[in-house]
Amino acid sequence: SEVVHVGIMAAAKRVDTTGAGDLYAAGFLSGLCEGLTLRQCGTIGAIVAGKVIEVVGTTFSEEAWQHAFQLVEKVRSEKYLF
Questions:
Q1: 3-state secondary structure the chain
Q2: Dist CA 59 CA 65 (whole Å)
Q3: From CA 19, how far away is CA 39, in angstroms rounded?
Q4: Which of 43, 27, 48 is nearest to 75 (CA)?
Q5: Does the keyword Metal-binding apply (predicted)?
Q6: Distance between CA 66 and CA 24 in Å, rounded?
Q7: Which one, of 15, 13, 27, 25, lies nearest residue 68 by Cα?
Q8: Cα separations (Å) of 72 from 1, 16, 18, 34, 77?
Q9: Contact 44, 30 (CB under 8 A)
């Protein structure tokens, strides 16, 4: 049995928490489906959850998506974990 503690993604601004849990789960599960480590999965979940609380609702700008994708790529290569 393994316990992994994952930090949070610091949001530039906290606007609305709608969808944060759903996006955390989606990010975590996408990493799990890719065969990533639990820490990588949790970090991806934290990234997308941290991004969604910066906007009203659950619609990201293209710039926000690109930033999230860049961070996720770093997680996949284990260069960005928290």
A1: CCCCCCCCCCCCCCCCCCCHHHHHHHHHHHHHHCCCCHHHHHHHHHHHHHHHCCCCCCCCCHHHHHHHHHHHHHHHCCCCCC
A2: 10
A3: 21
A4: 43
A5: no
A6: 17
A7: 27
A8: 26, 22, 21, 12, 9
A9: yes
Two structure tokens written together for 41:
């999965």
Whole-model pTM? Answer: 0.89
Could you tell me how many residues make up the chain?
82
pLDDT in tens, the chain (82 residues): 889 999 988 888 899 999 999 999 999 999 999 999 999 999 999 999 999 999 999 888 899 899 999 999 999 998 777 6
